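If your schedule permits, I should be very grateful for your opinion on a structural question. I have a record of one protein: its chain in single-letter code and its fold written as discrete structure tokens. Would you kindly read the sequence against the tokens and tell me how you understand this chain to fold? Thank you for your consideration; the sequence and its tokens are set out here.


***
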Amino acid sequence: METVRVLIADDEKEIRDLLKKYLEREFYTVDVAINGEEALHLFRQNKYNLVILDLMMPKIDGIEVCKRLRDQTNIPILMLTAKDHEVDKILGLSIGADDYITKPFSIHEVVARVKALMRRFLVLGSDANSHEQALLQFKGLTIDLKKYTVTVGAEEISLTAKELELLKFFASNPEQVFTKTQLFRNVWDSNYIEDDNTVMVHIRKLRKKIETDPSNPKFIQTVWGIGYKFVGEKDEKR
């Protein structure tokens, strides 16, 4: 089995050392960076499976690092921050982070989130063992889990790992209505949720990428007072 390599970027030595220690106990290979500039340098030099970013770092902050990483990779990104302001969480998610934890945090919670992100990310690829699971086809939308691509019309679009996972869950359960809590528990693989914004931000981002008119969505529809459902007409011609 290929070794999972994690990059941790945080300007607090105690946090870097703690995360490295506990993740190495899970047999992950871990590299650390003390600021955003070093994180980007390490990312260019090595192949990583997951990145943990502190929001507030010297030289280049976590938001900017996340933006630059998203231009070249769809691997899971977990954001850490000492801030508890709603705008910071929404900003982190809106620019491509897959999950978000506020300091101070439980180290066991962080490890659990990392393992869940990696497990879900790897499962997307393993689903390709079945052609039925690997290819979800609807009129105007094709989700290829083997190639890890999504095509809207004739255009291939880029999704993050979490966006693809959310779309896969919706498309695998068409017409079924899910609450925000149900979506979080199934897609983020956790019973823990501080608020609804994690789910709402990802749905908003997903709609912008797959819907012709995000304000009047065709695929991911809102069921007022309850949650969301996926509506898609199977493409019988394929």
